[in-house]
Automatic annotation (TrEMBL):
PANTHER family: 4-NITROPHENYLPHOSPHATASE-RELATED, PHOSPHATIDYLGLYCEROPHOSPHATASE GEP4, MITOCHONDRIAL
Protein known as: Haloacid dehalogenase-like family protein
Family matches, as InterPro entries: HAD-like_sf (IPR036412), HAD-SF_hydro_IA (IPR006439), HAD-SF_hydro_IIIA (IPR006549), HAD_sf (IPR023214), PGPP1/Gep4 (IPR010021)
Originating species: Staphylococcus caprae
NCBIfam families associated with the record: HAD-SF-IA-v1, HAD-SF-IIIA, YqeG_hyp_ppase
Transmembrane segments: none
Length: 175
């Protein structure tokens, strides 16, 4: 189970991006955040960033942290959402494959050790980040509804989360 834990266990597990202490990340040397979009920042059906998300991105920028949105979704979706935030993005990222993570780190002109990955899916965001040696933060999905492939991923994810909870690796409980 050690390999499974190393690949699928996030470094941190929080309710939402708003619970992430960006000041602490900055003081610990984080210079870049790779974040998922759908069900991480907003619901998959929300077209534009909310005011609260805009403030979160502004806070990161003010602290010297560059944020890149890395999503498996299509160009139109990711591009239109990212435009208002004035951030770089990678669409059709094919997470958990490593190419998009490496590309984002290169675009931000930082090192892997200065990078945090934030996402709502263990099998794409956390697994992809962990495989690339990045610090991973998993958030509870913003919405309870998902597409077909994500529904399948969530079944596996629930089993892994339950196992990690039973072992005492994850202390946080979902509502």
């Amino acid at each position: 189970m050690g390999i499974v834990k190393n690949l699928f266990m996030p470094n941190a597990y929080v309710q939402s991006v708003f619970e992430i202490d960006i000041e602490k990340l900055a003081s610990n040397g984080v210079k870049g955040i790779i974040t998922d979009l759908d069900n991480t920042l907003v619901g998959w059906d929300v077209k534009e960033p909310t005011e609260r998300i805009k403030e979160w991105f502004a806070k990161a920028r003010k602290l010297g942290i560059t944020v890149t949105i890395v999503s498996n979704n299509n160009e139109e979706r990711v591009s239109s959402f990212s435009k208002d935030l004035e951030v770089d993005f990678i669409f059709k990222a094919r997470k958990p494959m490593g190419k998009a993570f490496k590309k984002a780190i290169k675009q931000m002109n930082i090192q892997a050790k200065e990078t945090v990955v934030i996402g709502d899916q263990m099998l794409t965001d956390v697994f992809g980040g962990n495989r690339n040696g990045l610090y991973t933060i998993m958030v509870v999905p913003v919405k309870r509804t998902d597409g077909f492939i994500t529904k399948f991923n969530r079944l596996i994810e629930r089993r892994l989360l339950n196992h990690f909870r039973k072992k005492g690796y994850i202390k946080w409980e979902e509502n």
